[in-house]
Design goal:
377 residues, Lyase, Ornithine Decarboxylase, Chain A, domain 1, 2 domains, eight-stranded mixed beta sheet, eight-stranded parallel beta sheet, 10 helices, elongated
Length: 377
Amino acid sequence: MATQRILDFLATRRPEGPCLVVDLDIVENNFHAFRKALPDSAIFYAVKANPAPEVLRLLASLGSNFDCASVAEIEMALEAGATARRISYGNTIKKERDIERAAALGVSLFAVDCVEEVEKVARAAPGARVFCRVLTNGEGAEWPLSRKFGCVPAMAIDVLLAAARLGLVATGISFHVGSQQTDTNAWDAAIGDAKFVFEALAEKGIVLTLVNMGGGFPTRYLKDVPAAEAYGRAIFESLRRHFGNRLPETIIEPGRGMVGDAGVIKAEVVLVSRKSATDENRWVYLDIGKFGGLAETMDEAIRYPIVTARDADLMEPCVLAGPTCDSADVLYEKKPYPLPITLTVGDEVLIEGTGAYTTTYASVAFNGFEPLRAYVI
């Protein structure tokens, strides 16, 4: 949300054009909240959420590990001060030469979800540790994940058997319960799946040690979400229920929950109009849209809090859109967004909860608009 530090920065610096401002104090508070909520789980920050060097350096100094989706992200984490042992190559879709490069940098923990990926890792990173990602249904998530990543638990057994056969260390299971997951019990079924795979492989002489419980921890947008403590309590209870006293090593991969509420985008109203004399809704166009960093408004899945200086005035639903010459660049139309009826051209708006998945989603130069500027304070 817009902390006083962010408001002071915008008031004194007056940056031109749309920009993101991230408050590192909030990131640090979130890290400590996760550590307190799940003290026995290693934190692997999902770099893709916000790879700003300042964010990575802070988290590295606090002792965070890093979940990386590419060699570039691995190099960013190393540059920020992490050691290779604190990095997981968490993408299940990797070029063989990228696996080889990661291994050369010292990374030894890789995600897989099929035998074909295991074969690549075995060739490019002999002896590496691998964990297999299993599918989850994503119920309760505002941004459910597709079937792009993961396999069914029964197949995970075959994948990890193949890993062991090819000289890799079959280490464990991973899953992701869906982004912006609001159900604290969503991890239970997936932990049960992990236990199923653990037992099946134990019968074949392979002892798994790791459950990577992924991300999904939410940030606050328009609705309140449970605190990290509530998730920690529910997850620990599920681990105890399924694994008893022999708890595995566990990992969590917060991304949005770590940085989402630390960032605010400052934007400007470019145009306010109607499509006809009888149009029920005004159209409000901002100088930022889907292609400027707000891609998560796709299907209106994420509804960001928007704050203006006129919020004491009467509100009226409006269609909110971006500035580009692309008809898809509409943020909220199916469910119009309430904004002050006095809102006019040139007014600034603050789009809160935008610390995650904004700068890296912004296009390079679509329609000639520059990438979203970011300031980390």
